Amino acid sequence: MKSLAKKWWVYPLLLLIIYSITFPFFFRNPDYPLFFEVYSRFNGTLEHIAIDENKEQLIQNFESVEIGALATDFTLADVDGNSRSLSDFKGKTVLLTFWASWCPACRGENKHLAEIYPEYKGKGFEIFAVSLDRSKKNWEKAIEKDGITWTQVSDLEGVDSPIATQYGVYSTPTTFLINEEGIIIAKDVQGEALDKELADIF
């Protein structure tokens, strides 16, 4: 033990081992807000690394989704396991948004959407949100905390989701505003820009 104590790197190594063992069980538990926050940021870093590896292709995909084009339909499961499709909302103005619980900007935009959604919902506006989470618990926790009442779906494949790749999601949140006929009329509209678009429509 004396020989081990003389080696300064033993103690950091022991801490790293303890951290590695406890992280999957303790830090992923959304019942612990502080550690949930730490885990979310760590997870977000990993997801952004995955995005960066394919960023050039994702940007090309995003640019290929043109305003004036028909939005590609897709079907994913909601939090209850029910299949929901983008085409379910045909006849309404839809905000298709890609977000994640680990994305601070997304969480901020969720608060904004929670404020305006009740105002426009009765006028024919809907939000179809695709979560890029891998953990269903984290996804559900964020839904509860942000007061989300609009439709949520996910394949729980994170940024590797084929739908996210198809729409060229290289940053979060990424949004597409779609009209009643399913035509994309705006891209990356958030905050005041979204408010203006909705005011013009309704």
Q: Which radius of gyration do the C-alpha atoms yield?
A: 20 Å
Percent in strands: 15-25%
| Average pLDDT over all residues | 85
Largest β-sheet summary: 7 strands, mixed
Q: Helical residue percent?
A: 40-55%
* Low-confidence blocks of residues: 1-5, 25-32
So what's the overall shape?
Answer: globular
Q: Could you give the distance between the termini?
A: 74 Å
Task: Identify the strand order in the major beta sheet.
Answer: 2-1-5-4-3-6-7
- In terms of structural class, how would the helical and strand content be classed? alpha/beta
Number of strands: 7
The helix tally amounts to: 8
Strand/helix succession: HHHHEEEHEHEHEEH
Q: What report would you give on this structure?
A:
This protein starts with a helix and ends with a helix. It has 202 residues and is of the alpha/beta class. It contains eight helices and seven strands; from the N terminus they run H-H-H-H-E-E-E-H-E-H-E-H-E-E-H. The chain has helices spanning 2-5, 10-27, 33-53, 55-64, 104-121, 136-146, 162-166, 191-201, and strands at 75-78, 83-85, 93-99, 125-131, 151-154, 174-178, 184-187. Strand 3 (93-99), helix 5 (104-121) and strand 4 (125-131) form a beta-alpha-beta unit. A seven-stranded mixed beta sheet has the order 2-1-5-4-3-6-7, with helices on one face. The protein is globular, with a radius of gyration of 20 Å. It is 49% helix and 17% strand.
